[in-house]
Amino acid sequence: MRFVGGPVAWRVPIACQVIFAFVVIFLVFGLPESPRWLYYHGRNEEALQVMCDVWDEPPDGEKVLKMQTEILETIAMERKEGEYKWANILKRDDVQTGRRVLLAYGMQFMNQVGGINLVVYYVPTALQNNVGLSANLSLVIGGCVQTMFFFGSLIPTFLLDRMGRRRPMMWGSAGLAISMMLIAVLLSISTARGYSQTLQKATSSASVTFFFTYMFIFGATANCIPWVYVPEILPLHARAKGTAIGISSNWLWNFVIVMITPTLLNNLQWKGYLIFMCTNFAFVPLVYFCYPETKNLTLEEVDHLFTAGGKHGAKALTAPSQPVQESFKAQALGDDEKMVGRGGGLAAEHAEVSDGVRGGYAG
């Protein structure tokens, strides 16, 4: 469209994005409501039916009963605390809501401050000004670089629940840092005095490779994980507000990076890439020490990670989450046995949120 000229050159590409929006709108109608949301609003029979459909189990199936118990326990605790207000969003409570909101903010911060929008928005400019390619060739290669985002995104699409959350973020951040470092090193050689013109041209061309690796690695790791992790890490009572804070972090730092990148590229040249090398390297220990693994955990099990003074949350940072899952499983199964012993009824402490549920699965 660049060769067309006029407003059509930019209006048509933007308009084409409407196609994908309509596809999403169409697919949304096939999605069920969340069982947690349904239970929270008293639509117990619908919630039970959704869980039965998802797991292909009868209403008295072990997995359905276990999940039902966990959800109702969480709702009972949250209703006991009352309506959650913005003023309480960063306060420390029994499930460490404030800490979890900060983790959500930080995860989306990492999504942007690693330098992704230097590549997404400005790679043609970088290739032209820093690498020395022609305008047309910069646009062509820039378009090819963007396709790596698609290919990289295929990996978590199929493997994210096997990969987990922490390891891809750590390895991904390290890979992004190395890509930025190699771009900086190669461009520094291409502009330094004392090297032959042949070597300078070769190193300049070689730097293009690492724009490709950067985009592929980002697509495979830091692109999707923050959007999955943020709602996973937040408790139900603060999920809407906490997710809003996390997403605001993404777009705030998106704006900052987009505004400062032209100055970095023009004034610092290859040194500007070292800034993003440092931020990405810094994210590796940050994820390791601060972010627990949420792979294959229910939202109620994630709440359990942050209870008891955060002991389980700290343990999950450096140890596999399986012991925590087994502990919670034993607790939940114990609750189920109590329920069975009472003829399928829920514990008395959950009576305020379980009215109408007994008849839904005991029959």
From TrEMBL:
Per its UniProt entry, which superkingdom is the organism in?
Answer: Eukaryota
* SUPFAM superfamilies for this protein: MFS general substrate transporter
Instruction: Give the transmembrane region(s).
Output: 12-31, 101-123, 135-159, 171-190, 210-230, 242-261, 273-291
Q: Which UniProt keywords apply?
A: Membrane, Transmembrane, Transmembrane helix
Principal localisation: membrane
> Pfam families recorded for this chain?
Sugar_tr (PF00083)
Q: Does the keyword Membrane apply?
A: yes
UniProt-annotated location(s):
Membrane
Recorded GO molecular functions are: carbohydrate:proton symporter activity
Cellular component GO terms, alphabetically?
membrane
Topology versus the membrane: Multi-pass membrane protein
Name all Major facilitator superfamily (MFS) profile domain ranges: 1-295
Q: Which family does it belong to?
A: Belongs to the major facilitator superfamily. Sugar transporter (TC 2.A.1.1) family.
Q: What name does this protein carry? A: Major facilitator superfamily (MFS) profile domain-containing protein
